[in-house]
Amino acid sequence: MMEYNFREIEKKWIKFWSENKSYRTVEDSSKKKYYVLDMFPYPSGAGLHVGHPLGYIASDVIARYKKLSGFNVLHPMGYDSFGLPAEQYAIQTGQHPAITTNRNIDRYREQLDQMGFCYDWEREVKTSSPKYYKWTQWIFKQLFNAYYDLDSNRTKNIDQLVDHFEKNGSDGIKAYGDEHDKFTSYEWKNFNIEEKEQILQCYRIAYLSESQVNWCPKLGTVLANDEISNGLSIRGGYPVEQKVMRQWSMRIKAYAERLLNDLDGLDWTDSLKEQQKNWIGKSVGAAVSFEVANHKGEYIEVFTTRPDTIFGVTFLVLAPEHELVMKIVNDSQSEAVKNYVKETSSKSERDRQSDVKNITGEFTGAFAIHPFTGNQIPIWIGDYVLSSYGTGAVMSVPCGDQRDYLFAKRFDIDIVNVFKDVDISKSAYEDKTGTIACSDFLNDLQINQAIKAAINAIEQKGIGKGKTNYRLRDAVFSRQRYWGEPFPVYFKNETPYLIDDQNLPIELPEVDKYLPTEDGEPPLARADKKQWKHMEGDRMDFNTMPGWAGSSWYFLRYMDPHNEKEFVSKEKVDYWQNVDLYIGGSEHATGHLLYSRFWTKCLYDLNFIPFNEPFKKLINQGMILGRSNFVYRINGTNCYVSKTKIKEHDTTPIHVDISIVKNDILDQQKFKEWMPEFKDATFILEENGDYICGFEVEKMSKSKYNVQTPDELVIDFGADTLRLYEMFLGPIEQSKPWDTKGISGVHNFLRKCWRLYCDADGNSILIDKESSKESMKTLHKAIKRIREDLDRFSLNTCVSTYMIAVNEFTDQKCRNRDVLEQFVILLAPYAPHFCEELWEKIGNQSGTLYQSRFPVFNQEYLIENTYEYPVSFNGKMRFKVEFPLSLKKDELQKELEKMDQTIKWLDGKEPKKVIIVPGKIVNFVI
RNA sequence: GCGGAUGUGGUGAAAUUGGUAGACACGCUAGACUUAGGAUCUAGUGCCGAGAGGUGUGCGGGUUCGAGUCCCUCCAUCCGCACCA
Fold first, then answer.
1. d(CA A205, CA A902)
2. How far is the CA of A715 from the C1' of B32 (A)?
3. What distances in angstroms separate CA A298 from CA A142, A301, A512, one per listed residue?
4. Model ipTM?
5. Does the C-beta of A516 come within 7 A of strand B?
6. Could you tell me the pLDDT band of residue A894, with boundaries at 50, 70 and 90?
């Protein structure tokens, strides 16, 4: 019997597509473009699991739908191939990370190929390839050579700033940057090159700065927050401390306002925009300086969003790292303060923010002078104040801020209430409505007026000014690692210089080990003159770029991946423009998505690209969770109890590999062979001899033996089934557990669909005869729903629609070519191999399916004359009755009131009201 | 802690603007068929109840003729938090 033979069919079409270069994309100005992009993967050693393709299938369905709708579709794929795991593996084995990376990429490619994606593989990019990172380095150079002009609010070439310095010195500078001493034009001209560079570093978009890192002396490396747990490195368990290091940074803060405002024009989910807004963290308030008593000329600057509560300030708190701490501490407190600072340095920022129950702090012994009352107020340090946010110091208003309130209570500091008729005996009053009291000139003002009045007074007194603050920090842009892009930079007298374009790319040098040097320099410091293909100055830059460097602009390279003269040609970027649909995980909400927006704005300002936002529409696909299986071992034995009987025993659940479990029933023989310790296992079984396993939904991971790879499913059911099934699981943006149980349902659907077209010998059974009304209705109902659902990316409901249509066609015994041929095109985005095969079988030329057009919906086939009204009493549906749709409201009511059913439910009462929505519902209110 | 998301049958879910809750599948129960299959077909399947009927979208309130959908309160789970990518 010739059933639906997916193995042969899929093999045949994958070969056909590859031989005919079916998915090659060329620029074609006669067609409208559509750019669908997946977030490219990091090729890990474990290969793809079933969670990865979820987004890829979704984007592939949309790409194919858009092709069939007449668009010229750009749908590329590549690899974000720099990363820590490959480096870690290299450290352990001594093998070059490029080797493992390429091996992993090959594996990914094999897995991707079997899924039937329509990627144009000629456009593949790999961030770790020198041909690619040459241009990452080139972009870095543009950012090094750029500054942010506050007059025009855009990125400009640094030469324009240099021009200004030559003409006017530092006078009248309108550029975003760090503070530096004033200088005249004459002085500028006499600065030597290093002095000039020091000034320019205050303005460059890519600049060197001192920033704090998690330093692990024992490992000799900097660690990411997630490599640390409780102040110890996860690898090895060594202590980690905070250390200041000279690092490359990106002046993303200059773009904060634009990054915030431009969110409005993007078709992203509100939650994603909300996350970015939060990350940017705009707050409006004032900067105020407090003089330190008995330390002439020392001021503590704080930022506050509530200047209206300035009379409620009863103490100041500095971050323990604040530069003034050791200057102002008095002798008797010195020891305690030093200890506290040391204690803090072992805590991560997250720990400091999370731990609100443990209020800690230390008095410095110093006092500040309140600028309005002249009172002396104590200066404390506390780890809830972070040096990286604002000025690293806060004015504490215990009556108006809960953290300050708790701090004051804990250390017995005065609390002054500045709110009229508000009780603060239990907690602070954080509302922004109310009236101010006990505050001299602010008395009786509403809070929002008081904020303005306070800022006014602060400015008049010359102790501060109104200010907008952003939580967003400049982004650290270097890593003390090996497996990343080298900087196109060399140093002379520790001053950075760019390397000429003609010498790019600066390739990663060979090193003997992928570890830091003995004196704590990054791995690249191990390379000598011979190992660097190009070397200048005293030394090359030993840092490498972070993971987000390559991923911040890769969507541009796909447009012109082989261009050796430019990162992308003007012509191509003008045609493809920005990404129309971007699909990827929500974990990138604030990292990758913010950084690419930032780089896009820079490149736009510098006239390299014609748009200032990279991704017009964005969908976050949810995570697919694993479904783990368990066996239950009776404690102290090697005997395992089936799930329904665990209550009778004292047991421990043990993860068991899901590959030896089918529908929660354990393969007992395979279990015994699985690991030596189970060789002599005994079982307590169900009456029918089955061993039933327990299950739990968890993240997919090797250690839980719950990883499901697409490979085995493709072998068992085929790629088309897997594609349909992953979409069928639920809404794309929701996370959901993986469960193979349901897969036979969609597989059966394809088989059932196949039987509509072919007889047992695999020959077409379609006939050219006018279709029945019912079949046309089924088809057009499906066209309407599929189009609507695809347009709103409701990809799961499409699958149900296909199933309903096939069920109805089967019931109708439909054999008509005109209906079923349309249906093949309708299904093609989801099941490409299957549909190409049927397309050919029913008499079309091989591989021409994608030259046809997506079916068009015709309302005529769906017109109905009658409607089955649900009739409700007090909102509860009681019965249904069919009426012509032409029936007017009052006629309908009259007809209904005559009916026995109505009389029964009215129960002799007169309805108070009858609601009739024609074509929808009837409701009697009794 | 801050921020975001999600809670509907035994399971995955559907219900696009407030209008028949549970479409479509999985699983399960019973039956038919027989080249004994991961096949196909038929009927049933939210819960309680023999039935009439009652009840039901995480909990508790509210708005409405009518709430899974809107508003308020609470609870639970998951994700992110700046060197994982």
1. 76
2. 33
3. 39, 10, 50
4. 0.92
5. no
6. confident
Nucleotide minimizing C1' to CA distance for residue A272: B4
- Percent of chain A as helix, strand, coil, to the nearest 5: 40, 20, 40
Task: Give A620 CA → B23 C1' in Å.
Answer: 26
**Helix (H/G/I), strand (E/B), else coil: A446:** strand
Q: What is the pLDDT averaged over residues A683-705?
A: 77
Rounded CA separation A739/A46 (Å): 20
* Contact flag, residue A351 CB and nucleic strand B, below 7 A: no
Whole-prediction pTM value? 0.90
A796, closest nucleotide (Cα–C1')? B13
Give the CA distances from residue A241 to residues A42, A347, A476, in Å, rounded to whole numbers and listed in that order.
Answer: 29, 8, 18
C1' (B30) to CA (A235) span, angstroms: 59
- Is the shortest CB-to-strand distance from A600 to strand B under 7 Å? no
- Provide, in whole angstroms, the distance separating residue A622's CA from nucleotide B79's C1': 10
pLDDT band at A400 (very low <50, low <70, confident <90, very high): confident
Over pLDDT 70: what percentage of chain A? 99
**How much is the average pLDDT of A450-460?**
92
Closest CA to A924 of A886, A885, A891, A896: A896
What end-to-end distance do the CA atoms of chain A give, in Å? 63
- In tens, the pLDDT along A797-822 reads 999 999 999 999 998 889 999 999 99
pLDDT of residue A2: 55
Q: Cβ distance A65 to A103 under 8 Å?
A: no
Nucleotide nearest to A355 in CA–C1' terms:
B1
Q: Which nucleotide is nearest, taking the CA of residue A917 and each C1'?
A: B19
Q: Is the pLDDT of residue A780 over 80?
A: yes
Whether A110 contacts A707, CB under 8 Å = no
Residues whose CB falls within 8 Å of the CB of residue A362, separated by 6 or more in sequence, listed in order: A333, A336, A337, A339, A340, A380, A381, A382
- According to the model, what pLDDT value does residue A367 have? 93
Q: In A729-857, which ranges are continuous DSSP H helix?
A: 743-757, 773-791, 795-812, 817-827, 832-841
Which of A122-131, A314-323, A445-454 is modeled with the greatest confidence? A122-131
- A784 CB-near residues (< 8 Å, 6+ apart): A857, A862
What pLDDT is recorded for position A509? 94
Q: Which of A862, A727, A558, A775 shows the shortest CA–CA distance to A65?
A: A727
Half-sphere exposure in the Cβ direction for A161 (13 Å, CA): 28
State the amino acid at position A762 in one-letter form: G
Can you tell me the distance from the alpha carbon of A755 to that of A776, in angstroms, rounded to the nearest whole number?
19
Looking only at the bridges linking them, the beta strands covering A489-492 and A464-470 are: unpaired
The distance (Å) linking the CA of A757 with the C1' of B41 is 19
Instruction: Classify residue A269 as exposed, middle or buried by CB count within 10 Å of its CB (0-12, 13-18, 19+).
Output: middle
A387 CB neighbours strand B below 7 A = no
Distance between the alpha carbon (CA) of A788 and the C1' atom of B17, Å? 15
Supply the angle between the helices A795-812 and A743-757 in degrees, to the nearest 10. 40
What is the Cα–Cα distance from A51 to A707, expressed in whole angstroms? 10
Residues A650, A652, A658, A663: what is their CA dihedral angle, to the nearest 10 degrees? 20
A918 CA, B51 C1': separation in Å? 35
Contact A407, A317 (CB under 8 A): yes
Spatial CA neighbour of A64 closest among A27, A24, A36: A36
Of A895, A897, A896, A892, nearest to A910 (Cα)?
A: A897
Q: Which long-range contacts (CB under 8 A, 24 or more apart) does A873-882 make?
A: A873/A905, A873/A906, A873/A923, A873/A924, A873/A926, A874/A923, A874/A924, A874/A925, A874/A926, A875/A923, A878/A905
Strand partners, A917: A921
Which A residues 442-471 have CB within 7 Å of strand B? Answer: 471
| CB burial string A171-207: b at 16+ within 10 A, e below | eebebbbeeeeebeeeebeeeeeeebbebbbbbbbbb
